[in-house]
């Protein structure tokens, strides 16, 4: 389902990718970028971190353009978002994509409040066929959980990568207002991003496993119960003091003792001491 939402037409307005140092989201951005490249969309990278020249050298399509905002960090330009807002709006055209790498470094540059207001203003005016993709490194900010929730409020598709369990958590907001949340296993196969729905556990199997854990024979170091073969052998065993089919057949062998059962005898029950009420 996640790939369906990523490749949906018209594209969802704002994709928020939340990653961390253990599992960076650039690979997922590259996967989405390839999708837009096949559709011949204009792709605009706004780079706020890393080596700008190295990133630009990796672009292979004439429809991809890079904008360097790494040089503004710590400079006078960081006092206002007007320059960036003007640049973003000018690049949002029909069938165009804007990639913000990364939101954390935008916050370093402009502060959280200005960054949030800027994104909110751009998203409100976005048209069909336009899309914004933003990377948010959740492990690089204090109070990242609270800031993450605020950013998710703006996103139409929020994706969180969990490297420890190789799972992706995502929330998709449909046009009608319905919210769809899902957890899926994920993996990268070369440039392909593959997800698979989690398999539902077999409840009957889990219950049986729990029952087996508390069975008496599993709680001792010696054997308590009997197998079916052992029960059959026990039932077929004829004890010497029990009456035979022909009790007179062996009179020449000497005296014999026969036991006659009372009505209350419990010789064939599983627990012969059950009547003791212990």
From TrEMBL:
Source organism (scientific name): Henosepilachna vigintioctopunctata
GO biological process: tRNA wobble uridine modification
Gene3D superfamilies per record: P-loop containing nucleotide triphosphate hydrolases (3.40.50.300)
Keywords (A to Z) from UniProt: Cytoplasm, Nucleus, tRNA processing
UniProt similarity note: Belongs to the ELP5 family.
Pathway assigned to this chain's UniProt record: tRNA modification; 5-methoxycarbonylmethyl-2-thiouridine-tRNA biosynthesis
Cell location: Cytoplasm; Nucleus
GO CC terms: cytosol; elongator holoenzyme complex; nucleus
Any GO molecular function: tRNA binding
Main location: cytoplasm
CDD domains assigned to the protein according to its UniProt record, in alphabetical order: Elp5 (cd19496)
Pfam families from the UniProt entry: Elong_Iki1
Protein name in the entry: Elongator complex protein 5
């Amino acid at each position: 389902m996640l790939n369906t939402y990523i490749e949906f037409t018209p594209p969802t307005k704002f994709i928020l990718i939340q990653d961390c140092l253990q599992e960076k989201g650039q690979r997922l951005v590259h996967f989405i970028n390839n999708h837009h490249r096949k559709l011949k969309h204009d792709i605009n990278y706004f780079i706020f971190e890393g080596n700008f020249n190295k990133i630009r050298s990796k672009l292979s399509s004439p429809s991809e353009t890079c904008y360097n905002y790494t040089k503004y960090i710590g400079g006078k330009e960081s006092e206002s978002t007007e320059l960036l807002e003007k640049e973003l709006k000018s690049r949002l055209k029909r069938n165009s994509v804007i990639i913000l790498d990364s939101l954390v470094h935008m916050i370093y540059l402009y502060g959280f409040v200005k960054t949030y207001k800027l994104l909110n203003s751009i998203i409100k005016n976005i048209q069909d066929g336009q899309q914004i993709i933003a990377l948010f490194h959740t492990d690089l900010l204090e109070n990242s959980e609270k800031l993450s929730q605020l950013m998710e409020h703006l996103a139409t598709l929020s994706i969180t990568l969990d490297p420890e369990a190789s799972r992706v958590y995502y929330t998709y907001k449909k046009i009608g207002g319905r919210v769809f949340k899902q957890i899926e296993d994920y993996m990268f196969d070369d440039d392909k991003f593959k997800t698979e729905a989690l398999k539902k556990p077999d409840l009957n199997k889990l219950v049986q496993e729990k029952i087996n854990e508390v069975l008496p024979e599993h709680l001792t170091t010696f054997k308590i119960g009997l197998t079916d073969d052992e029960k059959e052998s026990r039932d077929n065993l004829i004890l010497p003091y029990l009456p035979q089919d022909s009790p007179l057949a062996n009179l020449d062998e000497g005296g014999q003792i026969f036991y006659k059962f009372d009505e209350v005898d419990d010789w064939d029950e599983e627990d012969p001491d059950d009547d003791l009420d212990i």
